[in-house]
């Protein structure tokens, strides 16, 4: 509401002016006459013009043009400015986004299909969803500075385990449909052979989940069989798993007990897609004997947002722990024998295990998972149960009214969803839909003659009355319902039956003590204070860094016209969204040189997968499905059914040898499907031979996949579609400013050249521009992925304009080279470009310190925490190194502080090398130093408390961020996975 109020105030301010620049017919002429608005780009880009000149001097060049000419190969540099709209001021942006929002129509949506309207408590909306302290941290790889969100994710995991009655849950997946696909893949992997390659899917699973499963299964060589679950035969020796929906997509609750027993007799795993709120009343999957439970936690306090982002949940029985995809928050001990949270097991496994990875997941939905966890904490077990009961009771009342009016209510029992066949004598289907439009209500329309109604926590008595009227219920029918006693309306209920839940849930104290707003506010602030975010420090993670997420760009997230739309609402209700998506598509095509974008992939890794699938669909359409080899992102490649061929790089320059590459390509020329390149390379350099490389691949009939993770060094300078790319995914949570939310959300839309456009993702419910007959299939639950965060990237482009975007790329390159120049006399810079300059990131080689001082890259990152700084990327792409990417939005002072800290740490290493401190007992090995350690009565360390906690002159108590824990026992945490609050509590007691 606060953000919406700000929008209204700003619009009123604009309206009071004598004229409106955005509305004026002679807009362009007035821009020539009137002074320009203050540029947003000046606020986004960190260094001032004076600092820029000094930084260029430090880098050894005189002008920005000289720096770019020595960094970006001339063969690929763009010679023309991007053809984009002139930049908007922030006030003009508010006016424009409000205009788009007004074109969306927010109706009451009772469509269901896994998406429900809900009430986000204002205290959570304001203090988490709209709070930089929660939305700007990165993935918690440095766990000591992420104890708050890790604790909250542990709450989420415990909530999922409790409600589903499973043993262990991960810290969220992308959505319900992709979670279902991961369940299929897990079942297939368990048999470690190709004989058990049949996966059963009940025909009453959500259609979008089925579509995503089939897309994934086709590339893994798994056959999906869709039928009624009663007909499944598990005795064939070919079945690996089965998926059922509970309650199913039509709302019916089925008894799966016998089916589960038969499946287990044949060692077949059972996955159940379910609904967490329903499980407060309904017997959970774990109690039924299921092996896997999955679904979406969206209705627990997260807006529908036209499809996302939402946290998909995934929980398993203990024996499947190490096969579970995604990230798991675990509990371990720190060096002070205190319990501490960390990521364990699956963290970054796609980079580490490559083609042996269990999935290619690179992110989760941490922010949304935390919102759902806090929603659950706020309401507690009794509050959730009350919400669920009220929804169920409303559904029973509506069903009884329709039944009394002569409509047919299909089989029960049900929770919140009914399937209705209309009585044509009362109100036929067309009349019901016409009345629904009058009331601005959306119902689910099936391909048959039936209608579906799914109720949610926002439903009031007035809403139920409107629904009765829509279906033609007379006043007499409504009066008879009102006169009925609650015990008289029970048909369709599962309460007081074998389906009712009897097991306890959410009994941990955290779910039973923060029910007042004051208590929850303080708890959330306590967690926030344990984390480091962009509000405190730069986060210079090479290849995955965080830049400024401007407040103006974030305004649309809270606007109900964007936040409250159901993803399957009629198309005429999302005109503003469609206009915005078309503009974003057009702008991204201009920026990249591609011809069409799909916004369906809702993470970078999913974008990789979708792009590779598009290439394979292209080859199949040309009857060249034999083409398989490619490289080097192995996890995504094996998911797409490709063979992996690794392409060697020169160990000194980090560049691909064109001669060696030619040999590899010629060896596989008959079967070459694609080559995947990261550009600029992950080593932080623009390779000079990129055009030759692409030409060679195309000569042999292959396609070029350009990883768009590093596009922020290219915007306005060069375009992957021009120098040879056929497809790229873009990390919108990086280059285009979507905040990373402490580990997600992200977005990975894919852009393609025209010949691949018809193979882009399609959707079984929502029409897309792709040809369904040729499309690669469906990769996400919603047609536009996490649509509600796309306005952020749209706004960034509109605010920056063509010159601002180019300047951002130039300054990103300048900032990286400035930091490298300041550090080169203290650390080795591992790779440099052809003229001695890096792109937007660079690698510090710290490998020699292991021998000279027993210090490795991890030790340096822990010591950086004492300087209240976030670590760079560790040991990627080269083991025991640090990769830094400062981004264009960091100013010189911040970069100087960071460089000074690294130089100071180098001197501390030298003190060890000179023998002043031992290799095992020194300020680096003792890092990070917590407040508890520094303020303890006893201090037996060979260095001072000041040296430990305040090692820099600029580091004052006012800006000190204390680590939430001391260094962790990581090996212990991986070998002894403690992933729920109950396990953590029992472990503490044992200790």
From TrEMBL:
Coiled coil: none annotated. GO terms for cellular component: glycine cleavage complex; mitochondrion. CDD domains: GDC-P (cd00613). Pfam families: GcvP2_C (PF21478), GDC-P (PF02347). Its cofactor is pyridoxal 5'-phosphate. InterPro entries: GcvP, GDC-P_C, GDC-P_N, GDC_P, PyrdxlP-dep_Trfase, PyrdxlP-dep_Trfase_major, PyrdxlP-dep_Trfase_small. The keyword Transit peptide applies. GO terms for molecular function: glycine binding; glycine dehydrogenase (decarboxylating) activity; pyridoxal phosphate binding. Residues 808-929 form the Glycine dehydrogenase C-terminal domain. Keywords: Mitochondrion, Oxidoreductase, Pyridoxal phosphate, Transit peptide. It catalyses: N(6)-[(R)-lipoyl]-L-lysyl-[glycine-cleavage complex H protein] + glycine + H(+) = N(6)-[(R)-S(8)-aminomethyldihydrolipoyl]-L-lysyl-[glycine-cleavage complex H protein] + CO2. It is an enzyme of class 1 (oxidoreductase). Gene3D superfamilies: Aspartate Aminotransferase, domain 1 (3.90.1150.10), Type I PLP-dependent aspartate aminotransferase-like (Major domain) (3.40.640.10). The glycine cleavage system catalyzes the degradation of glycine. The glycine cleavage system is composed of four proteins: P, T, L and H. Belongs to the GcvP family. This is Glycine cleavage system P protein. The lineage of its organism: Eukaryota, Metazoa, Porifera, Demospongiae, Heteroscleromorpha.
């Amino acid at each position: 509401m606060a953000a919406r109020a700000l929008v209204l105030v700003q619009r009123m301010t604009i309206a009071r002016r004598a004229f409106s620049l955005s509305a004026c017919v002679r807009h362009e002429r007035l821009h020539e006459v009137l002074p320009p608005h203050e540029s947003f780009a000046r606020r986004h880009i960190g260094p001032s013009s004076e600092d820029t000149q000094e930084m260029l001097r430090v880098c050894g060049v005189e002008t920005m043009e000289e720096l770019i000419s020595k960094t970006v190969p001339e063969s690929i540099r763009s010679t023309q400015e991007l053809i984009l709209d002139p930049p908007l001021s922030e006030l003009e942006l508010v006016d424009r986004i409000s205009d788009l929002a007004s074109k969306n129509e927010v109706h009451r949506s009772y469509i269901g299909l896994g998406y429900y309207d809900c009430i986000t408590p204002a205290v959570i909306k304001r203090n988490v969803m709209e709070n930089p302290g929660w939305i700007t941290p990165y993935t918690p790889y440095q766990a000591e500075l992420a104890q708050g969100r890790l604790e909250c994710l542990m709450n989420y995991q415990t909530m999922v385990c409790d409600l589903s009655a499973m043993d262990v849950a991960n810290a969220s997946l992308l959505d319900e449909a992709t979670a279902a696909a991961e369940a299929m893949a897990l079942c297939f992997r368990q048999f470690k052979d190709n004989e058990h390659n049949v996966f059963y899917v009940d025909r009453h699973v959500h259609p979008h989940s089925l579509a995503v499963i089939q897309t994934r299964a086709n590339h893994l060589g798994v056959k999906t069989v869709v039928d009624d679950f009663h007909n499944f035969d598990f005795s064939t020796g070919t079945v690996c798993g089965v998926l059922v929906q509970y309650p199913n997509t039509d709302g019916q609750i089925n008894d799966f007990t016998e089916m589960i027993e038969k499946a287990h007799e044949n060692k077949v795993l059972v996955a159940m897609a379910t609904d967490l709120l329903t499980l407060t009343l309904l017997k959970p999957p774990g109690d039924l004997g299921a092996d896997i439970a999955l679904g979406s936690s969206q209705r627990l306090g997260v807006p529908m947002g036209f499809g996302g982002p939402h946290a998909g949940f995934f929980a398993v029985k203990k024996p499947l722990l190490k096969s579970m995809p995604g990230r798991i928050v675990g509990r371990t001990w720190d060096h002070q024998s205190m319990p501490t949270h960390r990521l364990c097991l699956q963290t970054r496994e796609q980079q580490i295990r490559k083609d042996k990875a269990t999935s290619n997941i690179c992110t989760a939905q941490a922010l949304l998972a935390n919102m759902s966890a806090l929603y659950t904490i706020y309401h507690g077990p009794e509050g959730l149960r009350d919400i669920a009961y009220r929804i169920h009771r409303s559904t029973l009342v509506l069903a009884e009214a329709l039944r009394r009016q002569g409509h047919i209510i299909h089989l029960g029992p049900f929770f919140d969803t009914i399937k209705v066949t209309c009585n044509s004598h009362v109100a036929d289907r067309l009349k019901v839909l016409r009345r629904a439009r009058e009331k601005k209500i959306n119902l689910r329309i099936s391909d048959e003659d039936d209608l579906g109604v799914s109720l949610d926590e926002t439903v009031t008595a007035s809403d139920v009355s409107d629904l009765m009227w829509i279906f033609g219920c007379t006043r007499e029918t409504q009066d008879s319902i009102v006169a009925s006693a609650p015990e008289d309306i029970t048909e369709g209920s599962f309460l007081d039956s074998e389906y009712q839940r009897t097991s306890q849930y959410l009994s941990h104290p955290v779910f039973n003590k923060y029910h007042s707003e004051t208590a929850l506010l303080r708890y959330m602030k306590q967690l926030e204070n344990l984390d480091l975010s962009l509000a405190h420090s730069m986060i210079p993670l090479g290849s995955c860094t965080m830049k400024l997420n401007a407040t103006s760009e974030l305004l649309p997230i809270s606007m109900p016209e964007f936040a409250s739309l159901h993803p399957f609402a009629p198309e005429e209700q999302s005109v503003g969204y469609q206009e915005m998506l078309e503009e974003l598509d057009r702008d991204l095509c201009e920026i990249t040189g591609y011809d069409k974008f799909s916004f369906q992939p809702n993470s970078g890794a999913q974008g990789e997968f979708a792009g590779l699938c598009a290439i394979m669909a292209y080859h199949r359409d040309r009857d060249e499905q034999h083409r398989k080899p490619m490289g080097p992102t192995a996890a995504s490649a094996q998911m797409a059914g490709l063979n992996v061929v690794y392409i060697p790089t020169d160990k000194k320059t980090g560049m691909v040898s064109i001669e060696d590459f030619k040999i590899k390509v010629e060896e596989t020329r008959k079967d070459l499907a694609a080559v995947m390149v990261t550009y600029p390379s992950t080593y932080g350099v623009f390779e000079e031979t990129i055009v030759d490389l692409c030409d060679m691949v195309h000569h042999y009939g292959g396609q070029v996949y350009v990883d768009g993770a590093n596009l922020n060094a290219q915007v306005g300078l060069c375009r992957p579609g021009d120098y040879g790319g056929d497809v790229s995914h873009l990390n919108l949570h990086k280059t285009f400013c979507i905040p990373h939310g402490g580990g997600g959300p992200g977005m990975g839309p894919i852009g393609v050249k025209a010949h691949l456009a018809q193979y882009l993702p399609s959707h079984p419910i929502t029409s897309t521009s792709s040809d369904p007959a040729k499309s690669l299939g469906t990769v996400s639950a919603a047609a536009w992925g996490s649509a509600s965060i796309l306005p952020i990237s749209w706004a960034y482009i509109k605010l920056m304009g063509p010159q601002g975007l180019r300047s951002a790329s130039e300054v990103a390159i300048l900032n990286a080279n400035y930091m490298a120049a300041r550090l080169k006399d203290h650390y080795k810079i591992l790779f440099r470009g052809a003229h001695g300059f890096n792109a937007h990131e660079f690698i510090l080689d710290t490998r020699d310190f292991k021998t000279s001082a027993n210090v490795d890259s991890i030790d340096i990152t822990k010591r950086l925490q004492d300087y209240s700084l976030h670590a760079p990327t560790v040991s990627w792409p080269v083991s025991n190194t640090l990769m830094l990417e400062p981004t264009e939005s960091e100013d010189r002072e911040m970069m100087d502080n960071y460089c000074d800290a690294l130089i100071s740490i180098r001197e501390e290493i030298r003190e060890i090398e000179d023998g002043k401190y031992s290799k095992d007992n020194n300020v680096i090995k003792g890092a990070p130093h917590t407040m508890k350690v520094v303020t303890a009565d006893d201090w037996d360390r060979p260095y001072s408390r000041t040296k430990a906690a305040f090692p820099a002159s600029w580091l004052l108590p006012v800006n000190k961020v204390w680590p939430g824990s001391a260094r962790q026992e990581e090996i212990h945490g991986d070998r002894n996975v403690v992933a729920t609050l109950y396990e953590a509590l029992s472990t503490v007691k044992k200790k």
